[in-house]
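Support reply, case 0932

Customer input (verbatim):
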Amino acid sequence: MFKPAGLLVHKSETTSAHAPVLLQALRDQLHCRVFPVHRLDRPTAGLILFGLNGSAAAKMVDLFTRRMVSKYYQALVCGWAPDAGQIDLPLSAKPEDEWKKDATSQPDATTQDAATQFQTLARYRFPLEKSLTNPIELSLLEVKPLTGRSHQIRRHLQHIGHPIVGDYRHGDQGVNRAVLAETGVVRMLLTSMRLDFRHPYTGELQAITVGRGTLFDQVISQLKAEPKLEICA
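Our regenerated output:
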């Protein structure tokens, strides 16, 4: 199913009593228990899988654990990204851990290997109304995480200098404010769009896809509609 940006997948110790939660909403809609197979960050939109029984969910969890599921995202990022690349950067188990370390800190016991591939689908110059001589450069990426660490895509893209537009934790706040002012869209522009895997019971190849989401499409549409916008594919 498609998870909207800003919606929690399931409750945690810090979830407020009235916060909407996808797991509970889906359970109430289907009138049965559902079992989450994987997670998406709260600000990330897109494709997420649930099982209707524990056995099916466990089989899918096993596929994710053994990295037998290919995951594809699209992200709008700051700057003109390279045509393609792979980011190999070990990450701490929790993003908060990195804030407590200086730039020369060595990986510790909580650090995990992490790898992310990407390719650039399009590049844009985004002119601001009050600064047409200093446009913002943006890139639309297809991103394939090879591992599944916390905030991996967001942290890896920030590391190479191309943070995701609308990411108010790992992103460029100046670009975030500018794009918000021009488009009126409030969400992180990262969407889980495709999952490829072998069906755990039949072995048949499955390719499940969704769109980027209405607000993400709205931003892309506004970029393309801008008469002074230069697109470099």
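We compared this against your earlier run and they match. Two observations from our side: Residues 37 and 61 are 5 Å apart (CA to CA). Residues 99-105, 225-230 have pLDDT under 50 and may be disordered. Please reopen the case if you see a mismatch on your end.
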